[in-house]
Design brief:
Layout: H1 6-12, H2 14-32, H3 42-69, H4 79-97, H5 99-102, H6 104-128, E1 130-142, E2 145-152, E3 158-163, E4 166-176, H7 178-182, E5 188-202, E6 205-210, E7 215-222, H8 225-233, E8 241-247, E9 262-268, E10 273-279
Antiparallel strand pairs: 1-2, 1-9, 2-3, 4-5, 4-8, 5-6, 5-7, 9-10
């Protein structure tokens, strides 16, 4: 997930849209099954009833479409979303259809339970989640020289000729404290480029030496430089910011690159950056 404020993450998740869709489906069913006997003007009451049913169904369709196109169709293919919709639509129908017998306190209690359940799901995903920010393909490899295809997330691929046998991302991250993570906040990052390094033998053993072919994006991916500088400067004064650090880790790669191998660069929600082999 790219670095975005909590509101942006809300828009990027299909769960809130599914919840709103289910609420209006429940409202439409409630209105459709409401009897109009005893109305002073049955014809007018019937017309009003079906107009409201159409309005509720239209709103459910609108929110359903937003839930598909804003987060992306690939995120909607999840059976758990169907369970979530059912878990919300049924109580919504019951509460609206039988609101007099159930009572307002029960309705409020159910709403609180649904909100807490949604927050729990978001927090579990946030605490354990990760964001893949790029894929790296090894096009060619010789000793102390490699040709890489860097494929950033939502960006065009870049071909790199780098010195060394290893590579590592240059990433700056902003990590939030646990209460913000519970609300669904994820680590903000600024993906600036890629560095390379090699393992050389020195008098006191083998050591990593950085190459001279670092690559930096003209426009780094993630948060802006000004926002990063702001957090870096006022880190201690901003509530909820756990730490701000420059992540330039040269030791998270288990072995030198292999020709034609594919690697994923991922930002963990604890602020770490990992290079994960996707194929050999």
């Amino acid at each position: 997930m790219s670095a975005a404020p909590i509101g942006g993450q809300f828009l990027a998740s299909p769960s809130p849209w599914v919840a709103l869709t289910a609420v209006f489906i429940g409202a439409a069913l409630s209105r459709a099954t409401t009897r109009i006997k005893g109305a002073r003007d049955p014809a007018r009451a019937r017309t009003r009833k079906w107009v409201l049913v159409c309005v509720y169904l239209s709103l459910s369709v609108i929110f359903g479409l937003l839930g598909v196109f804003l987060p992306g169709p690939e995120k909607v293919v999840d059976l758990r979303l169907a369970y979530l919709a059912g878990a919300i639509a049924v109580p919504a129908f019951i509460c609206m259809r039988f609101k007099k017998s159930i009572g307002i306190p029960v309705v409020l209690l159910l709403l609180c339970v649904l909100v807490l359940f949604s927050l729990l799901l978001r927090s579990l995903h946030a605490f354990t989640g990760e964001t893949e920010i790029a894929v790296v393909r090894v096009v060619a490899f010789e000793r102390n020289a490699m040709r890489l295809e860097l494929i950033p997330r939502d960006r065009s691929p870049v071909l790199l000729n780098m010195e060394g046998d290893y590579f590592a991302p240059i990433v700056k991250v902003v990590i939030f404290s646990d209460p913000f993570v519970f609300l669904g906040a994820k680590t903000w990052y600024r993906f600036e480029g890629v560095t390379s390094f090699m393992l050389v033998k020195e008098a006191d053993g083998y050591k990593f030496r950085q190459g001279n072919t670092d690559f930096y994006f003209p426009q780094p991916q993630g948060i802006s430089e000004s926002l990063w500088r702001y957090f870096e400067r006022y880190e201690r004064r901003i509530p909820g910011v756990k730490t701000v650090q420059v992540e330039m880790d040269l030791k998270h790669v288990d072995a030198r690159v292999k020709e034609f191998a594919v690697y994923g660069i991922r930002v963990q929600n604890d602020g770490g950056v990992q290079i994960v082999p996707l194929s050999d």
